[in-house]
Records
---
Amino acid sequence: MSEKTKIGVFGVGHLGKHHARILNNLDRADLVGVHDVDPQRGEEIAEREGIPYFDNSEQLMEKCEAVDIVTPTIYHHSLAAPALKAGLHVFVEKPITKTLEDADDLIALAKERKRVLQVGHIERFNSAIMELRNILDRPRFIEGHRLTLFSPRVQDIGVVVDLMIHDLDLILALVPSKVARCDSVGVPVLTGFEDIASARIAFEDGCVANLTASRVSLEPQRRIRIFQTNGYFSLDYQKEQIAVFQKLGQNDNRMGDPMPGITHRIIKMNREDDQLTTELNSFLECVQEGKIPVVTGEDGRRALDLAIRVTEEAERNLRKMA
């Protein structure tokens, strides 16, 4: 493989145009072209980046060593499967696929062809999350809120697969135990799918996670709090900072402390690269150096599986109320 990885972006809409911009400036990448089903949009982004536009996805794949798939979910498998069969490495945005069967197929193809398959769960590359994993020890209770304004752009899926899946992936990565059961509710407000949802996930080791997601909120919010035996952590994704509350040792109490027995500190993350840049660069590093992705195909499948379970439970509870 050449020093730079020849890569193409498939889908250059709201998110894909940023993928193209970042890849076109990464030292590890050689952006050879973009493809989009909307020729006007595809040509516009191609002209902006100074690269070719391909109206045929197969022709672009022939130029690539790796592909970056940022299309609607229903097209993930139909693009990723032929790419893997052709021996290309694949980055695919979350969720990995529409169905678990399609996800299984991509995972099997990646293993058979010995190719990198990475799923775009971008919060894993949030610097606050990366720091949190270094200080976390067996969570007992997790509370997460992911709220955003309504976007007419996303009306073909519910808020669980659209937004909550970020936090579902995170808790699966942070809790060293299997899911025992889940209960959830969801309400359609502006679309035919749930636009607000709440889920309670119980793990076999006793940990419980309460998650709320909404795409009809007036003020964006992305926060998560994690409690464990010696303290708790309050994480603000947008500010990329963690408030750490930890139990002091027996002789560490100081007179006048506002919270006797508890120490409080703020960990503020400072870095030049944004999450998407870090995520895409990590994918290329895996391709070039044979490393295992931070978010594997198996990780993507687990998040999708849990998202489907939460969605189905919310639908059952909604039918009971009808």
---
Amino acid sequence: MEFRNLLLEVSAGVAQVTLNRPKALNALNEEVFSELSSCLDTIGQDSSVRVVILTGAGEKAFVAGADIAFMQGLSALEARRFSLMGQEVMNRIEQLPQPVIAAVGGFALGGGCELALACDIRLASENARFGQPEVNLGVIPGFAGTQRLARLVGSGKAKELLLTGDMIDAREAHRIGLVNRVVDRAELLAAAQEMAAKIAAKGQVAVRLCKEAVNNGLEMDLDRACRYEADLFALCFATADQKEGMAAFIEKRGANFIGR
């Protein structure tokens, strides 16, 4: 499948999705969201894809934000529709069966930061910069940034970033828990691919259920979440992967998971 604004490459169970508008710093608009939605459909239905890497083309930006020139003339109803469209794509990334790794180089501002927040794991290059600068434009984040940022780094730090519009570097993003790891710019994609390969080699039913347990459990009280985990834990024992994984452990050999 070919896209105007995206590149999709699949190799060895890893799908790499690259937002490919480097002249516009990979800014998000309706066309990008529509293509990204179609791309996620393709990936979600492809059983050969075990892990997804999401990144941006060019040296300057992962995604510098939503397309401000596009947004400037929107009516209130059009702005709401655009916000809901973006939120739907972010939700689909979060709910995708496969884990999604954001490889963030350069600017991840506004919608770009929100896109990274929707991913399961975030790797950042030394030159990465994060922020939610919407207040500088007289608006608030529209793609669930107020919600995911607070859930990830806590309400106090989230409010500081949201209310000041300040931009932070990769090291500060790592310190507050916004990113998992910081690497050299030249090593960013290699680091993401290495992590993706490691995850792709694990029992895929278990990997997907881990993601499901965390995502859904966070919306429950602790007692219900623990019972939910127990249900998913038990479900693993109906899979070939569980039998292979435990047999391999007992037999002191590498496991050959088949993903069911």
---
Amino acid sequence: MSTTAPETTGTAPQRPARPTIAQLREVTQPPAIRGRRTAEHWTGDLYMRRVSPYLTRLLVRAGLTANAVTALMIVTGAASGFALLVPGLGGALLAVLLTQLQMLWDASDGEVARWRGTSSPLGVFLDKVGHYLTESLIPLALGVRAAGRLGDLPGGYGWTTLGALLAVVIVLNKALNDMVHVARASAGLARAADDEATTAPGASGLARLRRLARFVPFHRLYHSIELSLLVVAAALFDVVTGDLTGTRVLLVALVPASLLAVAGHFLAIVTSSRLRA
């Protein structure tokens, strides 16, 4: 699914009110969308884009706007974070279900916008709000889970502090790409191309690390999908051990890895050509 909404397309085109799946795919999933280097999550290629047109057809027939679908994405994503406040494996499984649904809404909101020709800056803004909100609430909730139940928070402030730190680092890492666009716009420059030549780090060492990250993509662990799956794995370990060892080990491991990821991301940006005229 798209982490950014499509560009404004102008006047809404006249299209069938009850489109076929083939018609939807032709308009809403063009090569320019499916072939983007960074904006498509791996679940999009694997299964979301295969399923999303069926949901999009229902949404179009129901008369929902793209922004209304994005609102559903925001609510569902936030709910995935709150679901982790339910202790045990049940809360973790519910969070996985909700993050999957969030990404399905995320795929469909752009498809509805492209079908109706109603994409807008407001849609882009709402999409950003949804992802930032979700991916900050999940680590915050992970800190609460590591501390125990909600009633145990006074004695578990160390775990909740780690969860808050993880949330801040994840949000900062997400914001770096948006900062590039803001910096270029403030300097009166066009949007940077999203291709290998533009985004490649200038330092040879960073370039080698980036190639290695393709095989060990730990920097992707902080997306809502991956985070929720990791929490489920930790919850299963907790069931086996009868305590919170799995959840706590996960949180402790994620914090330094996130700091490494954001440092590498920052260096990759400033040594690339993205911030050059």
---
Amino acid sequence: MLTGRLLAEYGLEVGFEQSQYSIARWITAPDRKTLEDFLAANRSSLAEDLDGDPVLLAGSAFQMGRAKERWETVEFTDVKDVRKQAA
């Protein structure tokens, strides 16, 4: 339906692929060094939100659990707390 509408209204041919990721979590760390180490070790599974904050993308709950086990001091949240940024 969306592909047909984009073609009809805008002349755009588009295709969709299923994402390999099903979980996204915002990342915070107790210090800059820990955050930088985490980001360097997980470059292929990272994205940035509209504010430029890092988001870890995982394909399964198992992968998310492994990240939590390996990085015990890193906090993974499913909802971004914008109040922390305002402070």
